[in-house]
Design a protein that fits this description.
The protein is of the alpha/beta class. It has one domain (73-357, 365-398): TIM Barrel. It has 14 helices and eight strands. The chain has an eight-stranded parallel β-sheet. The protein starts with a helix and ends with a helix.
């Protein structure tokens, strides 16, 4: 079979598989059909795209140690912070040390040189009682926080790599990126993007060449190549932005984004395939609104999307992380406590506050920790719900040991 025909076959198979997920799902209630009713499709290489639910779920590795409720809550919080040099007296180090924060995210303003950045991450990690996730957006192309001078072989965008469709080039860039991150003490790359480039004029995906292609087969192949290149270096990857941001006509950084009339079930194909291949470390939610999936809430805050679709339909048992909760699509629509509560109730495991958006409300680790603890104390969120996320996060971190 010629490669073009294989791609056509795979694309059609994915459309059938993802379409089966939402057959008749013009209303939210349509999301209740069990995944077991979906056939185990395979691609042209014989790899399962949608295996039975049990095999797609993340399986325990070693026993998860029991810790206090306060420590479990801390594991659910990822924050950004200012500065390039930290010591034990700095707020972020104290929050990491006392367990109020289980993950940090770095941006360009935290970066000056390899030596400086390694010292920064070393201080943070050495003061954390539980292994710390240190994250960065190092997609390549426009979205990168580490310059070429740090030793990354190339900085091609996903669109460039997908257009050339040279998996070896993608592997080389992914391997070089992962090596660099590992040397710098960074263990979570907030990449690759698996949004389909269905709207090339998309102001946040297409415009910045962040999507590999409109063809899900190409997206799957390149994303899997990136993930496989990171894993030997013990750097985790993040698929984003679930359930698909590629068809939007506006940017969730700025405000409310409705994709009800532009989103297609094929946008689920990369997630279905990579979950089936057990190639997912972390999945990041999008703040897009899709009335077909949830008539009330954007995806990050939607139980129908995070739990109903991603976990129950697609069989994903791993960590779900929110996109930045300070983005306009959330911050302009919800007060802080409501947004945090809805995200946790939806099934999100880690709440992200970048503290990197001008004029956004500040959200320190301590403030977020106290807020979540208060929701548990007043009975709004159960301790069992907190433990679910703690278990998933701890098993993720076990992969780094």
């Amino acid at each position: 079979m010629h490669i073009t025909n294989r791609r056509t076959f795979l694309r059609r198979t994915l459309q059938l598989a993802t379409g089966a997920l939402l057959t008749g799902c013009n209303t939210v209630s349509g999301l209740n059909a069990p995944l077991a009713h979906i056939a185990p499709f395979t691609d042209h290489r014989g790899a399962a795209l949608l295996p039975p639910l049990a095999s797609a779920m993340l399986q325990p590795t070693v026993p998860v140690p029991d810790v206090s409720l306060s420590a479990k809550i801390g594991q659910m919080i990822m924050v950004g912070f200012g500065g390039r040099v930290v010591n034990r007296n700095d707020t972020i180090v104290q929050q990491v040390a006392d367990g109020s924060v289980g993950a940090v995210v770095l941006f360009s303003h935290n970066v000056r040189s390899p030596e400086q950045l390694l010292a920064l991450t070393t201080t943070l990690r050495e003061n954390s009682p539980i292994p710390l996730l240190v994250a960065i957006d190092q997609e390549g192309g426009w979205v990168t926080h580490l310059p070429r001078s740090f030793g990354i072989a190339t900085n091609y965008s996903a669109q460039f790599l997908g257009a050339g469709n040279d998996l070896e080039l993608t592997r080389v860039q992914g391997d070089s990126t992962a090596q660099c991150l590992a040397r710098l003490g960074i263990n979570l790359n907030l990449a690759p993007v698996v949004d389909l480039n269905t709207n090339p004029n998309n102001p946040i995906i297409g415009r910045y060449e962040r999507s590999y292609a409109v063809d899900p087969a190409i997206v799957i192949d390149h994303a899997r190549t990136v993930i496989d290149a990171h894993r030997p270096h013990k750097v985790l990857c993040t698929l984003k932005h679930f359930p698909g941001h590629g068809s939007s006509h506006s940017d969730t950084h700025d405000g409310f984004v409705d994709v009800t009339d532009t989103w297609d079930v094929t946008e689920l194909a990369p997630y279905a395939a990579l979950i089936g291949q057990q190639a997912c470390d972390v999945i990041m939610t999008a703040h897009i609104f899709n009335a077909t999936l949830d008539a009330e809430h954007p995806a990050t805050l939607s139980h129908n999307v995070v739990t109903g679709l991603l976990r129950e339909k697609l069989g994903y048992g791993g960590v779900v992380i929110s996109d930045d909760m300070q983005m306009g699509a959330i911050a302009h629509q919800y007060d802080l406590e409501t947004a945090v509560r809805l995200a946790i109730e939806a099934g999100v495991d880690m709440i992200t506050f970048s503290n990197n958006i001008p004029f956004s409300r500040s959200a320190s680790g301590n403030r977020l920790h106290d807020m979540i603890a208060g929701l548990v104390d007043n009975g709004t969120i159960s301790p069992q719900r907190i433990d679910e996320s703690y278990q998933r996060i701890t098993r993720l971190k076990q992969q780094l040991l």
